[in-house]
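Reply to thread "Modeling small-molecule complexes from scratch"

Following up on the discussion above, here's a worked example others can learn from. I took a protein sequence and the SMILES for 3VV and predicted the complex. Inputs first:
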Amino acid sequence: MTSAGEQPDRTVLLTDTGERPWRSANLYGGDEYSAAYDELTNALGDFLDRLAEARPETELIASMTESLSELARGLDPLAVAERDRVFGRRTDLVSRGQTMSPTVDLAEVDDRSASGTVYFGPYFLGGNGAVHGGAIPLVFDEILGRLANASGRPPQRTAYLNTDFRSITPVNRTLTIRAWLVSEDGRKRVLRATIHDQDILCAEAEGLFIALRPGQP
Ligand SMILES: CCCCCCCC/C=C\CCCCCCCC(=O)SCCNC(=O)CCNC(=O)[C@H](O)C(C)(C)COP(=O)(O)OP(=O)(O)OC[C@H]1O[C@@H](n2cnc3c(N)ncnc32)[C@H](O)[C@@H]1OP(=O)(O)O
């Protein structure tokens, strides 16, 4: 007996090919180490997507738990200070070397705007095919934060981030994301962003970013 139950519905799968479009070709031009690390975070993200979709039997749950615990123990002695870490700090990678947010693949970026695509895989499902309402502000913070911190501007922190959910944001679709600078006033920058599914506005956000003073955490 397993806890997987009878006759699971396998009809609603990710894509015909099983490929995650946002998990590939993630290099902006990084070195060999970045490329290898990108492969690692892609594999991890892929695992999370497939885990989110799967209904494993008890024996497989136990063996996967053991494998994951062993991998985690292997990393234990490698922990380093924040400034020396790799995760989330590789700006030469489209994914930034992280799996916390879906990859925002920016095709066009200048001083005042950025646009590209985002793809929320099954890991980011809230329910009924819609992305979790917390994952959407996460992506907005990611793209607005990148734009606020771009072009040699001093490091900025988000003071507020207001999100309006206009219609459901679907998982497993390539969506368009846009961000632009609205105003600058001393240390304060207001930026806005949208996510569209073709011509449907899924969500929009406004963020206030404050440039940090020297030494400010
Ligand atoms: C180190 C940053 C990252 C570097 C990245 C490097 C590049 C990496 C590349 C890619 C990045 C990818 C993307 C990641 C980016 C994500 C960024 C985040 O999510 S940060 C985490 C969440 N945010 C917090 O934890 C802030 C917590 N809050 C604070 O630390 C302070 O409140 C802070 C810094 C926001 C402001 O504090 P004050 O003491 O410096 O300044 P005061 O005097 O309070 O405010 C300045 C002005 O702003 C207004 N203001 C402040 N907060 C406001 C608010 N909530 N609403 C309206 N106005 C506000 C004030 O009224 C004041 O305006 P008036 O100068 O008087 O006109």
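What I'd highlight from this example: The first strand starts at residue 104 and ends at 109. The radius of gyration is 19 Å. Questions welcome below.
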